[in-house]
Amino acid sequence: MNKHIAFLKDSRRARWAVLLFLSLVMFASYFFDDQFTTIGHIFKNPEILDLSWSSADYGLYGGAYSLLCVWGGLVVCGMLLDKWGVRITGTLFVLLMVVGAAVVMYGISSAFHDSALFHFMDRFFGKPSLALAYAGCALFGLGSEIAGVAVTRSIAKWFRGKEMALAMGLQLALARLGTAAALLVVPRIVNLNLDYIPFSETSKPALAGFVLLVCGLLVWSVFLAFDKKLDVQEAALAEHRGESTEKDDKFKFSDLFKVLGNKHFILVALLCVFFYACIISFRRFATSIIIPRFGIESDLASLMVSLIPFTTIIFTPIFGSLVDFKGKGTKWMILGSFLVLIAHLIIGFAPGLPVFGYVGIAILGVGYSLVPAAMWPSVPKIIPDKNLGTAYSLIYWIQNMGMLLVPIFVGRIIENNKGVKGAVYSEILFIGLALVAIAVSVILSHSSDSHPELKLDTPNKVK
């Protein structure tokens, strides 16, 4: 007698609850990563800061996020994700996020400045607070990226054949709500109207982010219970059918070279690095660019920058639904990359009226919604399930090369070219990156047309 065993992921409530749990973890990660975004202009005047960081120092700190990711951490940990599974590997790196955030929080605090550790590090580093925060940010970055891979792979597992692009779009939207929260909350909890800004003010965002990450760790534990139950159900069905519960397709090291030999994968990875460099690196220095460019105050600048995440919160799920039900994923990638180019042209060269700043930032947000909504769900179409952790990790690894280097270049540009000149030169760099992103997306689209069997432009939803 055949007994039907329903899977937990077939329950709409269960799989959307799982999506919420996963999204809240990344919400906390995005908040912490963007804690300084709307107050980044204070680093132009290091003499008024107890922290004593310059714009170049801030750019160096921002690049630390990608340090361990670039130097092999992401690739190795991605392979561990495929070998050990989401629950073990994901938990380790969610914990690493929390630890890294704690190190950053301590490194920029007055407690560290008055400690024996500070005086010891002062023998080797010109700015011990920067050195310790750099190490903490590197740990946080690796933890955040692998946690992001675990989240993306988990969504693919729970939503395959269902609303995968919508789910990934919603996860990105909710995660970017963390960025929006940072952009709006941080300027209101940090008192910048001082002739001298103490540690107690610049460390407030890190404390808020750390609390959110601890809450994210608790939510992750709830997801683990759901995911364990699903695996038990799948094992029970396999046993009921007389099938082996041992997986025959476990990850092998040789699979790494199979992934790297996939030209469509390489194109997606290249699009990722050039596209995200136009957004994430810009966002890190956004206030330092738009304040001199459009002659506005820091409060208005933070409100303007917040359009990026709020726009993506609205449009990413919409575009995800379009990809699910209408397809044409590679065409959306071209359009999104083109919109990012238009946005940077406006921010860099339109008349210096605030209205053009709002228009440019809003267009940037729409482009930021389009490409990820189509790009991330395309990976499971070209890579086998057993290699998804490695594939997403490799993409993040390549992306982090850009995130490591571009902030350093932009920080140097702004430090060496004051005012509008520095803003325009920075935008020229972003425009060049956007042009490369367009070229890569066009090549990917042509390749998709030549290989319809990959179904990169077909709808995700199975009818």
Features:
463 residues; mainly alpha; Growth Hormone, Chain: A; 20 helices; 77% helix; 0% strand; globular
Short description:
With 463 residues, the protein is mainly alpha-helical. It has 20 helices and no strands.
Task: Explain this structure.
This protein has 463 residues and is mostly helical. It is built from 20 helices and no strands. It has one domain: Growth Hormone, Chain: A (Up-down Bundle).
Output the number of helix runs: 20
What is the CATH architecture descriptor? Up-down Bundle
What overall geometry do the principal axes of the alpha carbons give? globular
Number of E-type strands: 0
Q: Biggest β-sheet, characterized?
A: none
Order of helices and strands: HHHHHHHHHHHHHHHHHHHH
CATH topology: Growth Hormone, Chain: A
- Which CATH first-tier class would you pick? Mainly Alpha
Structural class: mainly alpha
Strand content: under 5%
Helix content: over 70%
Mean of residue pLDDT values: 86
**What Rg, in angstroms, do the CA atoms define?**
22 Å
CATH superfamily: MFS general substrate transporter like domains
Q: Termini separation (Å)?
A: 29 Å
Q: Indicate how many domains the architecture comprises.
A: 1
Q: Low-confidence segments, ≥5 residues, pLDDT <50?
A: 1-5
